[in-house]
Amino acid sequence: MAVVRGLLVLQGAFGLTGTLGVLTLMGFNPLYAVAPVAHAALLMTLGALLRRRRWALVTVIVAEVLAVAGWELQLLLGLLPQLDFTVNLTGLLTTLALPVTVLVLCASRVTARA
């Protein structure tokens, strides 16, 4: 579970770093930071609770499924001519590979506990 905890902290840190960039581009409007900061806090809190609480493991699985679904939705919306979605290595690693890895590790842990 230490690996999952580390990956969740890393994922939260990437989200906070991206939030700083968005805040800079949007004129330091704090409304753009509410959802990413809440998501990072959720991931880091769940990382701390993983070992002791089964519901935390299930919540991590739900959060990562939503993250992967969000990436897929962005990809599908990027097919529209009016919208653009650039796929790059950083985006693939932080919004697809990292959540899928955490999802697989947590799902294997849930099935091992059952």
Describe the structure.
This protein has 114 residues and is mainly α. The chain has one domain. 78% of the residues lie in helices and 0% in strands. It is built from 4 helices and no strands. Helix 1 (2-25) runs antiparallel to helix 2 (34-49) and helix 2 runs antiparallel to helix 3 (54-77). The longest helix has 25 residues, at 89-113. The protein starts with a helix and ends with a helix. The chain crosses the membrane at residues 31-50, 57-79, 85-107. Keywords: Membrane, Transmembrane, Transmembrane helix.
Our count of helices gives 4
> SSE order in H/E notation?
HHHH
Shape: globular
**Helix share, percent:** over 70%
Query: What gyration radius follows from the Cα positions, in whole Å?
Result: 15 Å
Instruction: Name the structural class.
Output: mainly alpha
Number of domains: 1
Total beta strand runs: 0
Calculate the terminal CA-CA distance, rounded to whole Å: 16 Å
The largest pleated sheet is described as: none
Keywords: Membrane, Transmembrane, Transmembrane helix
Transmembrane segments: 31-50, 57-79, 85-107
